[in-house]
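Curious: explain these tokens?
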Amino acid sequence: MNSSRHEQVISLRKAGLTYAEIGRRLGITKERARQIAKGVAAPKKKPPRNEPDALLTAAEAAELLNVHTNTIRHWNNKGILEGYFLGPRGDRRFRRRDIEKLLRKKSPADVN
């Protein structure tokens, strides 16, 4: 954690500012200001897993294919990209090998 940011938040909090006021002053959300004051580290993004059978979220698949998450869902609905629905909510997951297969199939005409 950035100790100078932590010290700023603590000193502003001791001066009587609310987390919302601290957030506006430092350009962060009030929730992040509260987390910094409490010593909570910022969440880290997990890199996509590299195993061919790894199940990736729509966001991870979109990142690999350099497209929007909604495009991944659309391709799944159209059968362009195979996906799997997990759990009671029906969360979509995509195998890394299916994403790589889609990348190999892409023809020069699709680039336009």
